[in-house]
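Notebook p. 47: complex prediction with 5-O-phosphono-beta-D-ribofuranosylamine.
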Amino acid sequence: MNSSSNRPKIAILISGRGSNMQVILERVKDGSLPLDVVLVFSDKMQAQGLQIAKAAGIETETFSPSEFASFSDYEEKLVNVLKQAQAEWIICAGYMRIIKKNILTNFQGKILNIHPSLLPSFRGLNAQKQALDAGVKVAGCTVHFVNEEVDSGAIIAQAVVEVLEQDTLTDLTNRILKAEHETYWKAIKKVTLKD
Ligand code: GRF
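Predicted complex, structure tokens below:
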């Protein structure tokens, strides 16, 4: 990364596998997403995605709310780390925590998330299972701004996939994940470059 670059600076927050993060890093590397990833943060030390980020030469940081007296203290530390890294945008990619006041007020209108459903349907956990259980014929993913309500901020982009008669939860989850990988980086590009 060129620290004097005036490209948008993003930090990616993860908690696990990090496949969406990985695609973002790949698109940055191949030049299709012209921005700088200044930090990958995980609230879980064991997150697979941390290894992927390190291997890509990205700065990483990890600590968990359990190390702090309160969730607000945890977020305060995280805000400091994000500011230290000069992050301008926060990209949640499988970050399994609700973003609360401290981060929201410091990065107002600059926090994005991807959710594996066509919002406003199936907010919260296990969205793909919610979709299967509801018997919907199409499902998909949504990139949205993060606000104080879970999975409720303004929608930036959506992609639709079919739900097939014989789909298992794994089938549908994989089909949606593929759509996520095609959708998230483009939505990030659209939002960060017009700023
Ligand atoms: C994705 O399905 C994302 O929509 C959801 O968590 C999952 C993260 O997967 N928020 P990965 O860590 O990006 O592979």
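Notes: The radius of gyration is 16 Å. The chain has a mean pLDDT of 96.
Next step: compare against the earlier run before touching the bench.
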